Amino acid sequence: NSYISQELEKNIRKLHAITKNAVTDGRYIVFGAGSTQLLNAAVYALSMNMSSPAKVVAEKPFYPVYKEQTEFFKAKLFEFHGDASLLRNGTSNTIENVIEFVASPNNPDGNLKKAVLEGPSVKTIHDYAYYWPHYTAIPAPADEDLMIFTMSKLTGHAGSRFGWAIVKDKDVYENMLKYKSLADSGTSKDTQLRALKLIKVVLEDGGQGIFNFAYKTMRGRWTKLNHVLSLSKRFKLQEIPPSFCKYSQTVRGASPAFAWLKCAKEEDSNCHKVLHHEANILGREGGSFNAEDRYVRLSLVKSADDFNLLLDRLKELVSMEEQ
Ligand code: PMP
After folding, report:
1. Does residue 1 belong to any structural domain of this protein?
2. Does ligand 1 lie within 6 Å of residue 163's CB atom?
3. Which domain holds residue 267?
4. Which Gene Ontology MF annotations are present (predicted)?
């Protein structure tokens, strides 16, 4: 396919081999305008081989775009069907024509996840935006049917709009290529050259530079945040257990991209409002992730200055509890 730089594809495979985060042997690769475009290209491609409309689901709390995009594009082929675990536990025992989004590590809570549904007519889209050594231990190379990665969370070049999907099935691959060709005639050559340069720089020292730096930075932030909030009875952070990392060959403590904070007191039913009004901290409401507003998501991927400001404001808020 003339839209796709072989050199870039080769370097992407090398990158996964070094980070040990995904199997690429014998798989097809599709490029996208960020991973955002590929999320919907994947829904299209998978639903084309199902009886319509396919039910698109995700276990809560989930990244809002899965629902927003599926509903906005509103095709005859698919519809958003809500929380994946409702299908599993509900009275409907026929789990058919289902497409499940699985983000691992999950946005918002940073936990490694597996699909909650299984069966011959369940297809999954694994969103691995954060499956890099900065944000999580890499317990094993991901080996799923349809896996999506992005430059945005690898080097931070979200504005270059480059993502890629690793696809097992040839039919699905071809349908995704068709989507891509009709949506925008293929990824811009400028974008591909930019991504190639970035990945080559990452690979120069076998990834050591960026991955060690980014893990240390994210780990440091998580440790400081836990320390501040360990003094609080009002706010609780999510727990992410340490895990053996194939990339670093050590057990690694958590280093997530987001804090998924819970307001533990009955009266603090909107945690976003509490932080905003009492400490001038802006997060994202739990409700947008299909969870309770008792939760709020705080981003930890920001400049050092902004992170330190967040920490200072939280410290002050927590210190007021004791009075
Ligand atoms: N998936 C997840 C889970 C994300 O958090 C994001 C970015 N917020 C994306 C996909 C999309 O990123 P991009 O389109 O920049 O690749």
Report:
1. no
2. yes
3. 208-319
4. carbon-sulfur lyase activity; transaminase activity
